[in-house]
Amino acid sequence: MSSRKFISFGKPFVDAKEINSVNKVIRSFWLGTGKVTQNFENRFSKLKKIKHAISVNSCTAALHLSLMSLNLKKNDEVITTPMTFASTINSIILTGAKPVLVDIRPDTLNINEKKIEKKINRRTKALLIVHFAGLPCDMKKILKIVKKYKIKLIEDCAHAIETKYENKNVGSFGYSGCYSFYSNKNITTGEGGMFTCHNTKVAEKIKVMRLHGMNRDAWKRYLPNSVKKNSPYQHYDILYTGLKYNMIDLNAAIGIEQLKKVNKMWLKRKNLYNRYLKNLKDLPICVQGTKDYNYKHGYHLFLFYFDKRKIKKNIRDKFLRYLNKNNIGAGVNYRSITNMTNYKKIFKWKDNLCPISNSVGLNTVSLPLYPSLKRTEQDYIIKKVRFFFNNI
């Protein structure tokens, strides 16, 4: 075991400003959903140049609400990618609909746009895409498909806060955009997420559904400065079967400060990403990328997978153990969703259903990538990675 201090896989970029912002909320004696949350939503809406931004407690909540708002029925189908986190699939299942998988492209690791149409039928109600690791899907092709078949487009932007396709923000192309502010994301609120959309009626429905289906938030009913003097008590009503998915001011306070330095953090991630690329590109690995369209990468992950044309044996797990032994944190983003026990039981999915996703998922590794990662730490990671490959 290396004597070097452990380099974590992910670390939030927070300082005194976030701490002071949270303290201010605590001293206000209102910790739930309120004006600070509203302020955060307005700032995020401006950042993404989209009409409505509605905060929730996770990207999973944003995905689930997006699908719930479509009033999906049993046997309805939602097409998505197998290279994603469980929340994408779970959100579909929880609405009663069926996830239908389309394999990924080996270059972008995003859903293969050329294979989507083959999976569309009369039961298809939505296409849920994932802008994986911060690289956008080919939106021009995808928009043609959803327009042709009149299906809803939901964008999972958990990795893609800063990502753009042809100079347009992802999350603004379709029915809704869903973002994550989990502790290791490019912007963090500890736990949290955002739902974005253009349609006002959809936005109003989501606002109600995220809080039990209730038409009046607690802060609007109880806070003295939000109630007119001598006004009669106003009862709340339940308009939909909703959920407890709202964000609170404590989380939003962190988010506001994070938004102020989003470009600074993105640039640090970009520089670290490019240093990895420069120093590891000669190794027998495959990295994400494409020349098919112009894009701005979100640089959420630096990941690669072993080039099986050059490395015949399965060494991914050996490599992970090696990194851990040398006090380097690493991630696996992701194992193909077709490998997961629960979905195999429910849908009888086999490894050969999505062979590219299955192969990548068995061979992919993500290295530490966050703004506070020191250059000396990255140099050490690069050195150890190169040593491993030179001694395979």
* CATH topology heading of the largest domain: Aspartate Aminotransferase, domain 2
Shape: globular
Radius of gyration: 22 Å
| Beta strands, count | 13
Nearest-integer average pLDDT: 94
Number of helices: 13
Strand line-up across the major sheet: 1-9-8-5-4-2-3
CATH architecture of the largest domain: 3-Layer(aba) Sandwich
Number of domains: 2
Q: How big a fraction of the residues is strand? A: 5-15%
- Main sheet characteristics: 7 strands, mixed
- CATH superfamily assignment of the largest domain? Type I PLP-dependent aspartate aminotransferase-like (Major domain)
Distance between the termini: 19 Å
What does this structure look like?
This protein has 392 residues and is of the alpha/beta class. The chain has two domains: 16-261, Aspartate Aminotransferase, domain 2 (3-Layer(aba) Sandwich), CATH 3.40.640.10; 263-390, Aspartate Aminotransferase, domain 1. Strands 1-9-8-5-4-2-3 form a seven-stranded mixed sheet. A three-stranded antiparallel sheet has the order 7-6-11, with no helix packed on it. The relative contact order is 0.17. α5 links the parallel β4 and β5. It has helices spanning 16-28, 35-48, 59-68, 86-94, 139-149, 200-209, 218-222, 249-260, 262-280, 316-325, 341-347, 355-361, 375-390, and strands at residues 52-56, 77-80, 98-101, 124-130, 152-156, 164-165, 168-169, 176-180, 193-197, 285-287, 295-296, 302-306, 364-367. It is 36% helix and 14% strand. It has 13 helices and 13 strands. α1 packs antiparallel against α8 (249-260), α2 runs parallel beside α8 and α9 (262-280) packs parallel to α13. The protein is globular, with a radius of gyration of 22 Å.
